[in-house]
Every structure is written in structure tokens, then in C-alpha cells.
């Protein structure tokens, strides 16, 4: 089976790229293999690559591993475009089922070169956006860049405050804007929860959360998104109904 390489990308910061990348990696890994001890030498089916100079995903997952003693998926940090390509096309990327790339929200500090190479190497792109007006222009520029490179893509609404309700005008207006552009939009809306905002601090991924209603809702958002994206399998052109 060909390796799935999903790039999480949006030049707008604060739209949940890292949260989405870590969450998808966790639910994909759990679906494929469950938990593995850190000492286990075998290569895991899912690899998360942090291509963000801020190293947010790397630090989050490393802290989770240190706290729990479990490794759900492999992860590493890359510092430049050549290193990214070597990881994906070389031994590190071989025999994986899914590779997820978390990218920077800025084009500075060499991140533009890494993003350009990531677009060359990925099978498809997920563009998270928040339901607010300030997300629209950066998201449009991001999508146009992806289209220019000929990569298939989908958008996903993220960090939506569930207290606003499913009929939130902001949610409906941003979803309508995406549809008007003719761009594919995931039906899953990833809701914003305080427990997820705190997860990088306390060292938890979506599959490590305590068993309660809010935690299950947060995990289910990622599981539903993963199913839409067929995250444990090859890229598929249509979102499953």
C-alpha cells in the first residue's frame, strides 16, 4: 500500500494546525496498532513530522511520551526542506501507513522552503480554518497555493466554540464562503475544548484523555475527521458519505 502523506497547512496562525496534526496522528495510530512501549524497536505505522520551527508538535508528543511511557506513533522534527525529503523518501518513511506533516503558520525562518518541498512530497493537503472573518484571506491564499501545485485538498472548520451552537452565524457564514469558492469542506467540525488547550502542557494526546463526556467529544471529533479523510489508508478523491 502506498504511503499516505498528509500535509496540514494554512498560513494563518492559530487555526489548530498542530492540534489537528497531533490528534489525527493519535487516532490513526490507535486504530492501526494501539499502544507500544518506548523501548519497542519496531517502526510504527504512523509518523508525525513537525516542520514548524516552533517545534510545538514535537514538544507536545515528547512530553506525552515521557508522561505515559507509551508511544502511539513515531515523531521527529525537521529543520529544512532537504531533511524533510530525506525522511519521507528514505528509510525513515519506508513501510509507514500514514505520514502527517505539521507545518508553520509563517513563511519566515526558512519555513517557506519546507512548505514548498512538503507540497511536492505530500499526497494531499488538509487546510484547517477557524470560523472567523480574519481566517478567510490567509486561507484563500493557502488554498490557491495548493491548487497552483496541483495537490488535492480539503478544508476543515476547527476551534469552534461549542457554546455558540450548531446554528452559529459565524460557523454557517464561513462554511458558506468555502462552498461558494467551490472548495471541498469536511463535514466534521473540530470543537474547541479547554482540555485540549491544556493537553500539550500536561502531556496528553486525544487518545490519552481522561474518561468523561468532554474528553470523549474531543476525541470523537478527531476520530470522525480521520474517518472522513481515510487517514489510515491511501488518499481517496472523495470524502466518504
UniProtKB/TrEMBL annotation:
<protein>
    <submittedName>
        <fullName>Chromosome partitioning protein</fullName>
    </submittedName>
</protein>
<dbReference type="InterPro" id="IPR027417">
    <property type="entry name" value="P-loop_NTPase"/>
</dbReference>
<dbReference type="InterPro" id="IPR025669">
    <property type="entry name" value="AAA_dom"/>
</dbReference>
<feature type="domain" description="AAA">
    <location>
        <begin position="4"/>
        <end position="95"/>
    </location>
</feature>
<dbReference type="InterPro" id="IPR050678">
    <property type="entry name" value="DNA_Partitioning_ATPase"/>
</dbReference>
<dbReference type="Pfam" id="PF13614">
    <property type="entry name" value="AAA_31"/>
</dbReference>
Amino acid at each position: 500500500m502506498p504511503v499516505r502523506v498528509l500535509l496540514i497547512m494554512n498560513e494563518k496562525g492559530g487555526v489548530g494546525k498542530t492540534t489537528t496534526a497531533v490528534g489525527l496522528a493519535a487516532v490513526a495510530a490507535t486504530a492501526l496498532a494501539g499502544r507500544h512501549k518506548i523501548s519497542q524497536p519496531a517502526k510504527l505505522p504512523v509518523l508525525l513530522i513537525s516542520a514548524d520551527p516552533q517545534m510545538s508538535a514535537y514538544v507536545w508528543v515528547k512530553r506525552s511520551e515521557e508522561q505515559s511511557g507509551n508511544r502511539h506513533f513515531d515523531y521527529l522534527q525537521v529543520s529544512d526542506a532537504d531533511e524533510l525529503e530525506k525522511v519521507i523518501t528514505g528509510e525513515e518513511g519506508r513501510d509507514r501507513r500514514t505520514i502527517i506533516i505539521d507545518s508553520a503558520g509563517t513563511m519566515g525562518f526558512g519555513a517557506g522552503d519546507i512548505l514548498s518541498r512538503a507540497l511536492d512530497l505530500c499526497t494531499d493537503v488538509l487546510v484547517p480554518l477557524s470560523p472567523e472573518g480574519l481566517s478567510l484571506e490567509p486561507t484563500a491564499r493557502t488554498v490557491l497555493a495548493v491548487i497552483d501545485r496541483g495537490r488535492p485538498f480539503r478544508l476543515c472548520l476547527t476551534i469552534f466554540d461549542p457554546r455558540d451552537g450548531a446554528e452559529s452565524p459565524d460557523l454557517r457564514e464561513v462554511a458558506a464562503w468555502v462552498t461558494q469558492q467551490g472548495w471541498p469542506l469536511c463535514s466534521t467540525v473540530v470543537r474547541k475544548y479547554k482540555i485540549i488547550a491544556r493537553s500539550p502542557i500536561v502531556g496528553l494526546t486525544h487518545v490519552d484523555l481522561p474518561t468523561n463526556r468532554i474528553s470523549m467529544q474531543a476525541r470523537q471529533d478527531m476520530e470522525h475527521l480521520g474517518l472522513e479523510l481515510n487517514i489510515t489508508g491511501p488518499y481517496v478523491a472523495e470524502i466518504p458519505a
